């Protein structure tokens, strides 16, 4: 799909024509990854962060956050819960927390791998190549690192670097690929200053990077962040400013499915936050094929406030699991079994089998 076509879809307002986009995305999803929805259990194991991302509630400068880091045993407890609920994957997510050392996290990964057959996905920010390599050796399968926006000026504005360190997430994504990880990235939709052209470029980057997983969610202003205060103050929005809306997020999910047909695409928690009644289901009907139920112990959940009004803060993993199963049934989708590797990744890992099979 060329940029002009992408831009036309991003600007489309006619509901009948958009129906065509939803149907194309849904048909592509069904043909490429099937009807089964994979469940990835999310463990938000630490909200400690050294970064100052201006959009994120967990930024180091936000003094209002009660900081926590779960113990290895607590994380292991979540992994057991994932097995009990029939999930194929745990996603270990945290702020950029240097006190979670490479050796410590490698130990956690090894324990999970020794005791379960879960796939382990990491989402722990920008880390050194040596650390990424150590975790891969310990058995980590996948890594999520959103590039947030492909517009470098906008990225620099919302994502201050660490002293003396240039933040180059595209370079890290390439390292992850070299190390043999299944690689995920993604963006936020509707950042102040983000244009239609920026979103079209984001989608082209998804294609160029050949991503295995793509997470897309609306930007939700957090009142205790610099960017959130700017947005709440009503920053003058130009005609090219994309709205941080549910509709724009669906368009991005649908177009991401068409750009990367075989990728795993979650219907994100941020999307569910904008439409609690049916955001998840609509995401799954417009290109997405993954849900990420929260496995974080309930006592820590409220403290992992990346953005406000996040759904599923008080529910236990068991309740969320039941709720998600009902939601899947309501849209006639089944639950995936097994690890749910991305087909594109599988082809890269087994090129010979692929050739003999065809
Ligand atoms: N609104 C929406 N999404 C956010 N994220 C961080 N802050 C916000 C916010 N205010 C997303 C980023 C990050 C992911 C873990 O959460 O894309 O990569
Ligand atoms: Fe958590 Fe519905 S998914 S309550």
CATH topology assignment: TIM Barrel
The structural class is alpha/beta
Q: Provide the CATH top-level class.
A: Alpha Beta
- Would you count the extended β strands for me? 7
What helical percentage do the residues reach?
40-55%
Q: Which oligomeric state applies?
A: single chain
Query: What's the average pLDDT?
Result: 94
Low-confidence runs: 354-358
Rg, rounded, reads 19 Å
Bound molecules: 5'-deoxyadenosine, FE2/S2 (inorganic) cluster
Largest sheet, strands/sense/barrel:
7 strands, parallel
How many individual domains? Answer: 1
What overall geometry do the principal axes of the alpha carbons give? globular
What is the topology, as strand order, of the major beta sheet? Answer: 6-5-4-3-2-1-7
What series of H and E elements makes up the topology? HHEHEHEHEHHEHEHHHHEHHHH
Give the percentage of residues in beta strands. Answer: 5-15%
Number of helices: 16
CATH second-level architecture:
Alpha-Beta Barrel
Distance between the termini: 27 Å
Please, could you describe this protein's structure?
By secondary structure, the chain is an alpha/beta fold. Helix 4 (102-115) runs parallel beside helix 5 (129-138). It has helices at 3-11, 15-33, 72-84, 102-115, 129-138, 152-158, 169-178, 196-209, 226-232, 246-259, 269-274, 279-285, 298-301, 317-330, 343-349, 351-357, and strands at residues 38-46, 89-94, 119-123, 142-144, 182-189, 213-218, 290-291. Helix 5 (129-138) links the parallel strand 3 (119-123) and strand 4. The longest helix has 19 residues, at 15-33. It is 45% helix and 11% strand. It is globular, with a radius of gyration of 19 Å. The protein has one domain: Aldolase class I (TIM Barrel), CATH 3.20.20. It starts with a helix and ends with a helix. The protein contains 16 helices and 7 strands. Strands 6-5-4-3-2-1-7 form a 7-stranded parallel beta sheet. FE2/S2 (inorganic) cluster binds next to helix 14.
């Amino acid at each position: 799909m060329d940029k002009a076509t992408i831009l036309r879809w991003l600007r489309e307002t006619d509901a009948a024509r958009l129906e065509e986009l939803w149907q194309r995305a849904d048909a592509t999803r069904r043909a490429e990854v099937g009807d089964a929805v994979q469940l990835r259990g999310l463990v938000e194991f630490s909200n400690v962060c050294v970064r100052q991302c201006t959009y994120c509630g967990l930024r180091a400068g936000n003094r209002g956050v009660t900081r926590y880091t779960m113990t290895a045993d607590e994380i292991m407890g979540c992994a057991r819960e994932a097995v009990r609920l029939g999930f194929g994957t745990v996603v270990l997510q945290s702020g950029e927390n240097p006190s979670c050392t490479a050796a410590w996290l490698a130990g956690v990964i090894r324990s999970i791998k020794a005791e379960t057959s879960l796939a382990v996905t990491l989402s722990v920010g920008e880390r050194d190549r040596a650390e990424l390599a150590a975790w891969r050796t310990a058995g980590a399968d996948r890594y999520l690192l959103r590039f947030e926006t492909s517009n470098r000026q906008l990225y620099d504005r919302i994502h201050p670097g660490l002293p003396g360190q240039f933040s180059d997430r595209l370079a890290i994504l390439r390292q992850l690929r070299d190390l043999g990880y299944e690689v995920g990235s993604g963006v936020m939709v509707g950042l102040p200053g983000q244009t239609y052209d920026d979103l079209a470029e984001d989608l082209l980057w998804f294609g160029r990077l050949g991503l295995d997983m793509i997470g897309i969610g609306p930007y939700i202003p957090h009142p205790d962040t610099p960017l959130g205060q700017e947005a709440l103050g009503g920053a003058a929005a130009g005609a090219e400013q994309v709205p941080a809306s549910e509709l724009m997020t669906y368009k991005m999910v649908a177009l991401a499915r068409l750009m990367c047909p075989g990728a795993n695409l979650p219907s994100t928690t941020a999307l569910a936050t904008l439409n609690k009644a049916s955001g998840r289901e609509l995401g799954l009907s417009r290109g997405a094929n993954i849900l990420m139920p929260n496995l974080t112990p309930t006592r820590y959940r409220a403290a992992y406030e990346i953005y406000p009004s996040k759904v599923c803060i008080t529910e236990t993993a068991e309740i969320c699991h039941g709720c998600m199963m009902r939601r899947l049934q309501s849209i006639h989708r089944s639950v995936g079994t097994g690890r749910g590797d991305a087909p594109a990744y599988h082809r890269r890992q087994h090129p010979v089998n692929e050739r003999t099979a065809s």
